[in-house]
Amino acid sequence: MSQGVLSMTEAFSRQLRGKGTRWWDLMSGQEAVMGLMDTASASSMVTDSAAASSAWGGGKRVPNGRINVDADGNHRESIGETLQKKGVRIGLVSTATITHATPAGFAATVPSRGQEHQIAEQYLNRVDVLLGGGSQFFKKQGRADRRDLAEEFAKAKYDVVGSRDELLRSRSKKILGTFSPGYLPYMVDYHRDKELQQRIPTLAEMAEAALSRFLHDEAPFLMQLEGARIDHAAHKNDIGAILHEQIAFDDAVSKVLQMVGERDEILVILTSDHGNANPALNGTGPGYRDTNEVFSRIARIKGSAESFMSQWNRSKKKDSTAMTELMESVYGFKPALPELQALMDRLGGRKVTEWSDQLSNPEGLLGQIVGNVTGTGWTGIVHTSDPTQLTALGPGSERFGGLVRNDLVHGKLLELLMG
Ligand SMILES: [Zn+2]
Questions:
Q1: How far apart are CA 149 and CA 146, in angstroms?
Q2: Domains of the chain with bracketed CATH
Q3: Which residues pair with 388 in a beta bridge?
Q4: Residue 380 C-alpha to ligand 1 middle, in angstroms?
Q5: How far does residue 382's CA lie from ligand 1's centre (Å)?
């Protein structure tokens, strides 16, 4: 999550629901320590999620794409493995697959982030609470080795659940909850789909279910909670999706802080593993006086770029009229003629005049067309090198002020949890 997401979500949340965000509120007060996360990997100034999470989870910068395997090929122990042996309980929550790079860096070691089947195996009896997407990696049908991993988790006294209802009913100490074969849906789509709402919990609900399993237990714990689709929306230059995702993450933060309450032995850290596409609100109009008005149009967006593209792909009619109608129904405005032409050309595989290689992709073009109406812009469709926001609250929070290298977080967490 790039910095601009935080400030735009604050404004968006005020417009949409008449209140700001919890993270902004924390940054405005005196209680929390503020810093910046210095993000990079062993192979690039720009990190991917695998190397970024390995820096946090294994204490060393590794090449992009690897989970706790360094540049020399050494396999490093993840913080989850180290702590679990010392009696610390571990929890992972994500809106991506729970075997995705970020959760994996905390509790697995594999040469490639794509080895999600192996990552799932390593979680067994190491991670107490697993909530997110990715059921395919635990089910017999989804695995080449035909291993029924879900059954093995059940035998190891995990409650294995697959729906929101089952999650809310479960009271077990250990739990494996996967609510989709792949990623969980974008919230901008979820809010308009009753079926999704019944089947899939929100990030705040997963946060509550996970944290309730640690708060009233003697053992110390480390819980990692990820709003993963903020990153995915940035890759799609999708301003509507990214702001709704950040609000959902913020709701989870509110839930966590409310549950932690006055418990002064719990440290809460808010941060991001890297920036992505650096979205920002540009000034619009003479003296920028149209800025607020154009920004307010984001609230009218009714779906993600992903659902827009899949509706387009399914549409039988593929002419300019059909495209204009679809843009109006999803984004609430008609594209200008040259914009429409460029988008149709690009989706038809033809070249368009756009000097940025990044933004000439269909998602980049769509992001720019929506940006012309909403005042928002993007630098590209991939991760960036900028430091990310870091906010810490609770015991040891003073260790997270100023500029903190991502590979130094691991040692700080171990010191705090093991003394
Ligand atoms: Zn990404």
A1: 9
A2: 3-278+384-418 (3.40.720.10), 280-377 (no CATH)
A3: 37
A4: 12
A5: 7
